[in-house]
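Re: that chain you flagged

S.,

Sorry for the slow reply, it's been a week of failed gels. I finally had a moment to sit down with the sequence you sent. For the record, here it is as I used it:
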Amino acid sequence: MTVEEAKKRLEGLGYSGIYLWQDPPGTFYDWHAHPEDEIRLVLEGEITIGTEEGIYKLTSGDLLEVRAGTRHWARTEKGVKYLCGSKTS
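Prediction finished late last night. Pasting the structure tokens below so you have them in one place:
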């Protein structure tokens, strides 16, 4: 899937402000929350995102929607490239 195809997929789900992000191996984001719904669509590599409901390992082609106010953390051991977007519930 190209970046443009992936962007269109997220826009079709109602997300905007879509941007490409990349984290190198060993990146860790501690527990936090966002004021809007957030989505991550992995293009390359892998990332693990944990919420109070469970832990999700995402690889190329996977996406995860995190609802506004949901506490979560994220880490990548190998590095990852993904698209991010947000929307108001």
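What I noticed first: The first strand starts at residue 16 and ends at 23.

Talk soon,
D.
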